[in-house]
Amino acid sequence: MNNFDFCSPTYFVFGKSRETETGKYVAKFGGKKVLIHYGGQSAIKSGLLERVKKSLDEEGILYVELGGVKPNPRSELVYEGISLCKKEQVDFILAVGGGSVIDSAKAIAMGIVYDGDFWDFFSGKSPVKALPIGTVLTISAAGSEGSENTVITKEDGMLKRGAGGDCLRPKFSILNPELTMTLPAYQTACGATDIMAHVFERYFTNTKDVEITDRLCEAVLMTMIKETPKAIKDPNDYGARANIMWAGMVAHNNIVGVGREQDWNSHGIEHELSALYDCAHGAGLAVIMPAWMSYVVEHHDCMRFAQMAVRVFGCEMDFENPKATALEGINAFKSFLSSIGMPVNFKELGARKEDIPTLVDKFGIGDGTTGGYVPLDKNAVTAIYELAV
Ligand code: NZQ
Ligand code: ZN
Predict the structure, then answer these.
(1) 71-130 residue pLDDT tens
(2) How far is the CA of 275 from the centre of ligand 1 (A)?
(3) Pocket test for ligand 1, best of 38, 52, 100, 273 (most atoms within 8 A of CB)
(4) Which ligand number lies closest to the CA of residue 49?
(5) Could you state, in order of their start, the residue ranges of all structural domains in the chain?
(6) Architecture of domain 11-179
(7) pTM, 2 dp
(8) What is the pLDDT of residues 197-213, one digit of tens each?
(9) Cα distance between residue 228 and residue 239, in whole Å
(10) CA-CA distance, 192 to 261, in Å (whole number)?
């Protein structure tokens, strides 16, 4: 196990109706004038936004609002949010929504305390700093409610890029599983795929002696395999929604990734798909992750895949031919994704083989390599997109 620092300071407020306490938590963390940031229609239709405002009113907290965050959030709305917040002297950002809303809120929080272009944080020109943020989560997926990351797409060139730093971890996150009951089955499945991918990016490591985090990873994966079909079958299954919601946080606040080298190539390769086609991040991952596995298992000792197959998917270990077990595990993962309604190839996603050179170019590794488990060069990334076709 490698040396590590781990600080996950977010205060989690979990359970039924907890959004009615939003105002109390904004006050606890020093917010006096808040930007309520939200997405399209879901938080308005469900009445969530009204409940949140009522709770702020009860605490005497002032607010301005900015809705309209789209999935794969864009820089244009971030710029609008920054100038609104500067004008209104907002001191706290409250995200009401999913990963896209939270990421947009994090980017606004960064831009407010910075005189230059907020994109500097995403191109590595400036160390990250930000105003405090809080979240009321409505979809279990990206894990941004506990993570130190934000991912934004800049319209100019449709560049989808991330920024990260401890100050981006929310001060508090309100997790009410009931709020996810209005999700369409497709979004539930996209979220589940993303949660599993966050674990796999950490599970496939070259670091030795990481049994504790291996076992935590496996627990999250097995929970997702058990609970996701239940939530899809019965969207109002509180138990399933609750397990998935906490799994989504555990998968990405890095508790399952400490002390080990991580990979993250599948995410990088996927981000180009959601940037180009505006598809859901989870759907893109359902196409890329199995293709990445199929490529990598041929270029690395297969034992970690065999371990996943046995411990997570219940395959029987073939000691004579562990590669066969590894491949069985990858197939089991792909079948699981299909069974929850995810696309597993370019055609099902609506992606085009002709775009592969553009995708590889935009991924932008030049003549170098990237990733932790098996470093990939341009040819390898091309091969993975081709396997995904
Ligand atoms: O805009 P509304 O109307 O709310 O609709 C949203 C949106 O269309 C809908 N939705 C959300 N909650 C709902 C609901 N519909 C009905 N009932 C509810 N309760 O779901 C759709 C997807 O929402 P979105 O926020 O885009 O989903 P997700 O949480 O998957 O976020 C995806 C974004 O997060 C980034 C992705 O790249 C993508 O841009 N990621 C962020 C990470 C991070 N910050 O740590 C890590 C991830 O790997 C990921 O890259
Ligand atoms: Zn993700």
Answers:
(1) 999 999 999 999 999 999 999 999 999 999 999 999 999 999 999 999 999 998 988 999
(2) 14
(3) 100
(4) 1
(5) 11-179, 185-388
(6) 3-Layer(aba) Sandwich (3.40)
(7) 0.98
(8) 999 999 999 999 999 99
(9) 11
(10) 23
